[in-house]
Description:
- The complex is a heterodimer.
- Helices cover 65% and strands 0% of the residues of chain A.
- By secondary structure, chain A is mostly helical.
- Chain A folds into two domains: 7-72; 78-334, no CATH class.
- In chain A, α3 runs antiparallel to α5, α3 packs parallel to α10 and α5 (128-139) runs antiparallel to α6 (143-174).
- The longest helix of chain A is centred in the N-terminal third of the chain and has 36 residues, at 11-46.
- Chain A is globular, with a radius of gyration of 21 Å.
- Chain B is an all-alpha fold.
- Chain B folds into two domains: 3-43; 62-115.
- Chain B contains four helices and no strands.
- The model of chain B has no long low-confidence stretch (mean pLDDT 81).
- At the A-B interface, α1, α3, α6, α10 and α12 of A face α1, α2, α3 and α4 of B.
Amino acid sequence: MRDWLYEPLSAERFGWMVLSILILLGVLLFLVTYAIYVQRKLLGWMQSRVGPNRVGPYGLLQTIADVLKLLTKESFVPTHADRPLYLLAPIVAFAPAFVVFAVIPLTDRIAFTDIGIGLLFYIGVASLSTLGVIMGGWASNNKWSLIGAMRAAAMMISYEIPLVLAALGVVMLAGSINLVDIVEAQRGVWNVVPQFVGFVIFLIAALAELNRTPFDLTEAESELIAGYQVEYSGFRFAIFMLGEYVYLFAMGALIAILYFGGWLPPHPALDFIPGIVWLVVKTLFFAYLPFWLQATFPRVRIDQLMTFSWKVLMPLALVNIAFTSLVKTIAGGVS
Amino acid sequence: MPEVYVNSLLFIAVFVVVALGLPIVAFGLSRLLRPHHFYREKGETYESGTEPFGTSWVRFKVKYYMFALLFVLFDVETLFLYPWAVVFDRLGLFAVIEMFVFLFLLALGLLYAWRKKVLEWN
């Protein structure tokens, strides 16, 4: 499918592409449904509970029941809210999380788009979802949601810089921002080995970008009663949640591509397994990791959170870049 | 090769349409299915069950804007590093030294903010 991008487009091929984009959306909705189920089940087990087990066999239909419930719940605009912004916010929060999948290649042959600036596109579009969060929080005209939205904005912008700086190390190794080229550059050894510090910075910053525990201050149930979502109900709330979980999978796929060789198998002997299986397995692992951390770590305080990004992650990321360029210069014999 | 991107950009547009379409369709569907019983008390702002007072559109802690300002500065500077990283192999030693100077200035800026206590939350 990637070859099609370089040939004149026929109506038939366009139809196939649109169909495959819709299939991607369907797969993502399925994954999100079961990610929520798996999250609840895992958290239950890790806390010696059973988790959802009433709706369907082993509670497998629980999330579907929840979605149907949300669909039929009354959803009104609070009297004092800023109506247009309030209505627009869930859409702005969700759309970027799905659009970033446009640049994520599934294998070297299957990609929806193939633009030279893949990684930059991802980073740029993904940060738009912050806008949806702050729009929702401000437009609700609720004190809880305003605090939640302000915290979300402060946190997301603080952790975006370490994230972008950490990814720079990968770009230097590959010599390209195109995600396909970045994966191909990992044929010998996965980036996680030469860029281990970068990987750790990226992972921590990604958790913060995703608003996941230990950085889930924006939604802190116990202090902010769900933060920016307080005034949202029914399907508007569901779309916020959906955007959050879709972003989780997008980030999982990006970590797999940047640091874990994307569709490349761990050893060339395992080449017979199709690349897409490897990518999906790695993506699912990194989408699952936050759930595990959620059961392990307590929530940090806001001052710890902000100073950690600026005083620890950012200097570390700068050192990582300097070190990478130094090693590359010496090893590559740059004249 | 600008023309090779035409198809890619077209599909990005399709992605955008699908991403905007899903919530809009879902809201439409939900509008048909859900009940509509609105009364005045329901529309009040939620403040843990007590009578809400005042608006929340107030002046906010200035600390957040300081971080926003820092973010804009560092984000733009970070973006300068990307083209450099892409052509790193072809540039030679001179560019490496140039970029070390740039990174040094970046670190100096961070240090300045640090010493000025901008990075303290309280």
